[in-house]
Write a structure and sequence with these properties.
Number of helices: 6
Order of helices and strands: EHEHHEHEHEEEEH
Radius of gyration: 16 Å
Distance between the termini: 14 Å
Length: 184
């Protein structure tokens, strides 16, 4: 079974970005993929800040990345870039740790003003880590993920359509990759 890992770079586990992650995870599991999530905010802060590669938590998280056929990188946009907590984790991924993996960025920001954050802030770092197959990704704006009166985040239909499209592409590309690897 193909494995996909989600690297959740939001510092808040109640962020609206989590609704996008849950949507993606449900879709991919529905297509038969094994999906794991790394909530970077739950990793030990001392290990992240002091770049403790040997930390048990970091070794385990990097193991999930190493075993994955595809990686989804998710972050809210703060100050025209992805979060600092995400950067600290990316700094702990071994050199060429993303080589041979299919990458899908999913970002959410307050406005379209930071639409190119994926292109200019994230993709260069992913490339340094060996990523060569980076899908276009989705940049959503906050207004496309609204918390209702019951506190549940509802995604706009337009956002769901965009997510469906990139998730279908990710599923197809990952399935082909796994078939090639198996020699089929």
């Amino acid at each position: 079974m193909a494995k996909i890992v989600v690297i959740n770079g939001t510092p808040s586990l109640v962020s609206r970005v989590n609704a996008v992650i849950e949507y993606a995870e449900a879709d991919l599991r529905g297509h038969g993929f094994e999906v794991e999530r790394i909530n970077v905010a739950e990793l030990p802060a001392e290990d992240l800040i002091h770049t403790r590669f040997e930390s048990e938590a970091i070794v385990k998280a990097n193991g999930l990345v190493a075993e994955a056929d595809a990686v989804i990188v998710v972050s809210p946009v703060y100050k025209a870039s992805y979060t600092g907590v995400l950067k600290t984790f990316l700094d702990l991924i071994p050199e060429k740790g993303l080589a041979g993996k299919i990458l899908l960025p999913l970002f959410m920001g307050g406005s379209l003003a930071h639409l190119l954050t994926i292109e200019y802030a994230l993709k260069p770092v992913l490339s340094v880590l060996g990523a060569r197959h980076i899908l276009g990704g989705v940049y959503a704006v906050d207004s496309q993920a609204v918390r209702n009166d019951q506190g549940v985040v509802e995604l706009a239909d337009e956002l769901k359509l965009r997510l469906d499209s990139v998730l279908a592409e990710l599923a197809e590309e990952t399935a082909h990759k796994v078939e090639r690897k198996a020699g089929k």
